[in-house]
Amino acid sequence: MAMTNTSTLAEAELLARARACDPDRTLCLLFAPPCCRAALLALLLVYHELARAVEVASRPEIGLLRLAFWRDQFARAAAGAAVDHPLVRALTDPLAKGRIALDDLEALIAARVEELDDLFASADLGDRSAIVAQLERRLRASSGALARTMARLLRAPEPIAAAAEAAGVAFGLVGTVRAAPFEARQSPRLRTRSLLDMLGFTQGPLGPEGQARVRAAAADVLARAQQKIAETRRLAGRTQRAHLPPLLLATIAEARLRVLDRARFDPFAAEEREVPLLALRLLRAWLARRP
Q1: What residues have CB less than 8 Å from 9, skipping those under 6 apart?
Q2: What is the mean pLDDT of residues 240-258?
Q3: Does residue 178 lie within any of the structural domains?
Q4: What whole-number percentage of the chain has pLDDT above 70?
């Protein structure tokens, strides 16, 4: 009878779940060393669980209770105690070996607590420059912090971890623009993550003037994304392939930004357009050792 490799089965399940909820980041993680891949996938899934704690909260205290559960699980894992959630169990070994810091996981929770506070606060919509600054701040604490934590798990030096954070922010900025058509169809929407709501739009057709405002805001957001892509490359230079997976988010961000550029920064016009041969682009970046 053939032996069953339980660690491989666990990783296969993590991979399937990660692909279902976040195919782009998962594609980047396929370039990680095999010894780190399961922990990286578990970290990605934890990131989405924390985001979901905010998404499903009908009241702030409900979201805080869900986030408190994760905080307790991380603290127990870091202390070497038994934990209930299988995703946290997958991170127990990296925590014990110092490849993931409890402070980094706490920071991911803190970002969602802040988002929860903003979500139930009164709307404070500003001009386009304020929207870009607000988006970047939130993404630095969420998508950027995730990428930085992934780089640290891969034992990357701090300059590479900083480059990963910039890549995560760029990826998040482009993703926010690309999500506008999806957000337009949602009821209700998460104001803290919706470009349309930040611009003050409610449900219903945007009209020509509204579409023009969305394109203008998208252009500003994407210009900042391009700067963060350049920052990623400046900080990373030519780096070890083992450290590249979170940096490859910049490669994806640039490819998707070009699609939006050809659509004149109109996310609705670009909604059905995909990046051809995206995996090949990542492979080329990995071989060149540059994001």
Answers
A1: none
A2: 97
A3: yes
A4: 91
Is cis: bond before 188, omega within 30 of 0? yes
pLDDT digits 0-9 by tens, 203-225 = 667 778 888 888 899 999 999 99
Nearest one of 283, 132, 159 to 222, comparing CA atoms: 132
Q: How does DSSP assign 145-182, residue by residue?
A: HHHHHHHHHTT--HHHHHHHHHHHHHHHHHHHHHTHHH
Domain that holds residue 228: 23-288
Share in percent of the chain as helix, strand, coil (round to 5): 75, 0, 25
Tell me if 230 is assigned to some domain. yes
Q: How far apart are CA 104 and CA 278, in angstroms?
A: 30
Q: Closest by alpha carbon to 130, among 55, 224, 61, 202?
A: 224
CATH of the domain at 136: 1.10.600.10
Contacts with 260 (C-beta within 8 Å, 6 or more apart), sequence order: 174, 177, 178, 218, 222, 266, 267, 270
Q: What is the number of residues in the chain?
A: 291
Query: What's the DSSP call for residue 185?
Result: T
Q: What average pLDDT score do residues 77-94 get?
A: 92
Q: Is residue 240 part of a domain?
A: yes
As for how many domains the chain has, the answer is: 1
> What six digits make up the tokens of 126?
């500003």
Give the DSSP letter string of 30-79: TTS-HHHHHHHHHHHHHHHHHHHHHHT-SSHHHHHHHHHHHHHHHHHHHT
Helix (H) or strand (E) segment spanning residue 94: helix 86-96
Determine, yes or no, domain membership for 17.
Answer: no
| Contact (CB, 8 A) for 40 and 242 | no
Cα–Cα distance, 227 to 239 (Å, whole number):
20
